[in-house]
Amino acid sequence: MQKKHPDRDECLKMLKEYNTPDHVVRHCKAVTDAAVKIASALAAKGFDFDIQLIEAAGLIHDIARVEDMHWLAGADFAHRNGYSQEAKIIRKHMTHSLDPDPAKLKELDMVCLGDRLILEDRYVGIDVRMDYVIKKAGGDKKIEKLINEKRALNKALVANIEKIIGTSVEELVNKGAKDA
Fold first, then answer.
1. pTM (global) more than 0.70
2. Is 55 in contact with 43 (CB distance < 8 Å)?
3. Which of 56, 62, 86, 90 has its CA 20 to 30 A from that of 49?
4. What does 34-45 look like in DSSP terms, one character per residue?
5. 25: in domain
6. Phi/psi at 144 (nearest 5 deg)?
7. 2 found inside a domain
8. How many folded domains does the chain comprise?
9. Burial 72-86 (b: 16+ CB within 10 A, else e)
């Protein structure tokens, strides 16, 4: 049975109960902050997002990050707890390809974009984040090619979002970051 989306406190409680490391919790919070800010800016321009779903899925997207195939373990955990919409986002967040057309954006895209802009707990942008993923892959040319293809799509989407919201995504995400 689908439950209402967990609120921030419930998500933080789940992260604690799952024994998610503090640095991963900080990452999840930063990804969520970025995703919600971008989705809210787009919503102000007429886009329709379930912000509560973006917040909940973002906060627990890496709940199982220290496990092998963490996206599957995390999705299974969310599903077992009655959060099937969050589970769908968690399951896809590692492999989902972003479409550069903002008209096609869904909640999954917002969480994935947030994750692709944040390295650990700070905004670094697409290039630094993708370079980190390539380095982590340890020279696997197939993965490097795939990441670079996704890099181009991600950068095109960010440019299109910036045209719509009238500011840079970096400025938007970093606005108020010291206060959070």
1. yes
2. no
3. 62
4. HHHHHHHHHHTT
5. yes
6. -60, -45
7. no
8. 1
9. ebbbebbbeeebebb
